[in-house]
């Protein structure tokens, strides 16, 4: 390609089972000429193909596991890359089956945009499936931009009436979640209508193709523009046998920028110090930014260890936080159980003090939280931690405003959380 891509958009697919997520990604990659000839040949000879004679089963582009191809469902999260002259894309194919919602949360946590697919042929008067509502809710809670793709329009003969029913349901769903002006595109992923280019199959549709809509989405948050956050992974001591040897703090900058001479605060005690040196494995730097792995040295000997966070001069710590939780464990929440709250490199003992409300996925209403959290529930909770944690709101800093809860007895990830406030 002769042009340099200046924009990167990370996309995750979401929706219910058999809505066509994997086929859509395969179609985008195929029609944008992002597949090699040997990949196309492999699709032609693939086992368990459900395509008609002469057609390719494009879902196999991302469904690489034999169990996925045999069962016709997506289980694992798959990543694919392609580019147009204007934009580079990372496409994340996430499962739609309710059993694998936790995999979808993992994929969505790395995305900027969510494509929520809807199978128009399987809806009665536009009534949406529960899993479609759940995925749209998760995408919105994670701060993603939402684009709806109404798939399999060929099976309803490109009926404008049916599309309008589905469109109205999606608009109601969006209003209830607080999503403004969502793009809604009628498509046929199997044949490619309205996917990369606008098709004459629906003359009543005057909008852009799905790929054109995605190209117009802005990039995600530039982490370098956010406040400085540096979770300490390891304390190092170069030439430790020498008297003048100084401790350094190694890790990866989660957000923001730091320069030699900057004042920083260390850990929940907010001990102030200044950065004296910034080192990488092969050079010294005067400045570093989000995504770089560096070792930071301070002017003072400060008490910092793995799990502490170096921040800028503005940071807030708290023992009690309000957060959205998506419950991911097969075992329901036990109010007597303590969990490890993993934030960055820190693992802090915590407990859920109360469940404020749980979302009913049938109508997205908020119901009382005096019941146990179970697999795939989405709830607003109040958490208490044994020691203070950095209380960045998720919408302000998604890197440090997110966490997971780990069951210390089983080491299973119990929940994924997003900080919404402090008590």
Q: Can you offer a commentary on this structure?
A:
- By secondary structure, the chain is an alpha+beta fold.
- It folds into 3 domains: 8-215, Rossmann fold (3-Layer(aba) Sandwich), CATH 3.40.50; 223-311, Beta Barrel (Elongation Factor Tu (Ef-tu), domain 3); 317-422, Elongation Factor Tu (Ef-tu), domain 3.
- It is 16% helix and 34% strand.
- It has helices at 21-31, 37-44, 66-71, 101-108, 130-141, 160-177, 210-215; strands spanning 8-15, 78-83, 88-93, 113-119, 145-151, 183-186, 229-231, 234-237, 247-252, 257-259, 263-266, 271-279, 284-285, 287-289, 293-298, 309-311, 317-327, 339-343, 346-360, 365-368, 378-390, 402-406, 413-422.
- Strands 7, 8, 9, 11, 12, 13, 15 and 16 form an 8-stranded antiparallel beta sheet that branches. The chain has a 6-stranded mixed beta sheet with strand order 2-3-1-4-5-6, sandwiched between helices. The chain has a 6-stranded antiparallel β-barrel with strand order 17-21-19-18-22-23.
- Helix 6 links the parallel strand 5 (145-151) and strand 6 (183-186).
- The longest helix is centred in the middle third of the chain and has 18 residues, at 160-177.
């Amino acid at each position: 390609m002769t042009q340099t891509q200046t924009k990167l958009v990370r996309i995750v697919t979401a929706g219910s089972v058999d809505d066509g997520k994997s086929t859509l990604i395969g179609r985008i990659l195929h029609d944008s000429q992002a597949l090699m000839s040997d990949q196309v040949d492999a699709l032609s000879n693939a086992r368990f193909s459900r395509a008609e004679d002469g057609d390719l089963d494009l879902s196999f582009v991302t469904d690489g596991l034999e169990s996925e191809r045999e069962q016709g469902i997506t289980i694992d999260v798959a990543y694919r890359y392609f580019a147009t002259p204007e934009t580079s894309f990372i496409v994340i194919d996430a499962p739609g089956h309710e059993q694998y919602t936790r995999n979808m949360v993992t994929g969505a946590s790395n995305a900027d945009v969510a494509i929520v697919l809807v199978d128009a042929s399987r809806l009665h008067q536009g009534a949406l499936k529960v899993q479609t509502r759940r995925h749209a809710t998760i995408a919105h809670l994670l701060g993603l931009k939402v684009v709806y793709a109404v798939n399999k329009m060929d099976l309803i003969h490109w009926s404008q009436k049916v599309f309008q029913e589905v469109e109205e349901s999606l608009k109601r769903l969006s209003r209830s979640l607080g999503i403004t002006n969502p793009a809604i595109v009628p498509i046929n992923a199997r044949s490619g209508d309205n996917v990369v280019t606008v098709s004459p199959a629906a003359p009543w549709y005057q909008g852009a193709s799905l790929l054109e809509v995605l190209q117009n989405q802005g990039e995600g948050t530039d982490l370098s523009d956010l406040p400085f956050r540096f979770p300490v992974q390891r304390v190092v001591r170069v030439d430790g046998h020498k008297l003048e040897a100084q401790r350094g703090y190694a890790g990866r900058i989660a957000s923001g920028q730091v320069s030699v001479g900057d004042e920083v605060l260390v850990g929940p005690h907010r001990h102030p110090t200044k950065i004296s040196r910034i080192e990488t494995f092969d050079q010294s730097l005067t400045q570093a930014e989000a995504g770089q792995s560096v070792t930071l040295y301070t002017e003072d000997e400060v008490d910092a260890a793995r799990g502490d966070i170096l921040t800028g001069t503005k940071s807030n710590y708290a023992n009690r936080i309000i957060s959205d939780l998506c419950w991911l464990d097969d075992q329901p929440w036990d109010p007597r159980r303590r969990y490890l709250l993993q934030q960055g490199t820190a693992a802090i003992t915590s407990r859920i003090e109360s469940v404020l409300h749980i979302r009913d996925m049938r109508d997205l209403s908020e119901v009382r939280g005096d019941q146990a959290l179970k697999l795939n529930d989405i709830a607003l909770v109040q958490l208490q931690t044994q020691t203070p944690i950095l209380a960045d709101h998720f919408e302000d800093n998604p890197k440090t405003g997110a966490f997971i809860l780990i069951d210390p007895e089983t080491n299973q990830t119990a929940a994924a959380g997003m900080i919404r406030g402090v008590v």
